[in-house]
Amino acid sequence: MRCPTCPCRTAFPQMLMAGFLPFSAIYVELYYIFASVWGHKVYIIWSILFIVYIILIIVTAFITVALTYFQLAVEDHRWWWRSFLCGGSTALFVYGYCFYYFYARSGMSGFMQTSFFFGYNLVVCFGFFLMLGTVGWRASLMFVRRIYQAIKCE
Predict the structure, then answer these.
(1) What is the average pLDDT across 4-30?
(2) Which of 46, 53, 57, 59 is the most exposed place for a label (fewest CB within 10 A)?
(3) Largest Cα–Cα separation, the chain
């Protein structure tokens, strides 16, 4: 008889946890990026943007490795897709921020502006999903290879 699994160990709650932490690292900078792209303001702090990008990559890699470790600790060895989904789930939060920005800050209206805004942001967020999913998967792959290399079989 199998023990019931904890609901927090399923894919969706892990995606929420893994997406929220990197999103909280880039939340403040998203306003300035959206204001420069959609609000016709000039963005001049490129060094801060680069630092936030590096923080985003590092936090995504670390949280995905931690969740992969927790998954392997309960002897669930199907980590490949979950690491990709957990890494890329930050894009879902960024797309959620698009709704907030559109309705609270942008002042846009009309069908064409709405479809243009959400269409372009969907494509950008899909690119973020692929990029951060690849970062999470690659970090988990390096972690799994490293821990299984250290096992001594005699």
Answers:
(1) 83
(2) 46
(3) 69
